[in-house]
Amino acid sequence: MSGIDTEPYPAFNGNIHMLTFEAMGNYNSLQAKLRHHYSNGLSFLNDYTSAHSLDDAREPLPSNNDGGDRMFPVFGLRIDYGNSPFDVRQSFHFAGTYELPFGVGRKYLNKKGLINEFAGGWESTLLFGTQKGFPFTVGSNTPIVNGASAYPYLIADPYAEGGTPPASNPSVTCPAKCAREVV
After folding, report:
1. What phi and psi, each to the nearest 5 degrees, are found at residue 39?
2. Residue numbers of the chain with a pLDDT score lower than 70
3. How far apart, in whole angstroms, are the C-alpha atoms of residue 96 and residue 35?
């Protein structure tokens, strides 16, 4: 059978890649909100969140492991289980609003007309927000496969007492654990 192409899609000239979304994630949080409306147009809104997000995948997983930084067929996904890159442990927000007393339905300039169009219905808002930062991820700028960089795997206690510096970097000093005082 000459002249017949046995490829199912001959127009695709190259590899077809597939990404899979196989991962485990866990998010727990405590959320609280406090809202109060005072007379004369004053109101407050506060919210607080204490949370922790864990997962074992920073990005979609290539199904044939032809790119990216992960060797999940070798090590499995569980080895990467830890803080999510977007894990924010605590956040607090405050909003205070004051409706200015000018315009229809308010204390001053309570008449329809041109002055109401310009001076009525204004309000002032104060916003404040703060949160803890995102987790720090140790990485490498040395490309491994297809330009991707690697993430390290914990193989020993980094705070273990003693040890010898690696031959590649003898200027590293090995840590020593402090003795804890018993009170």
Report:
1. -70, 165
2. 1-21, 58-77, 137, 139-156, 158-159, 175-183
3. 10
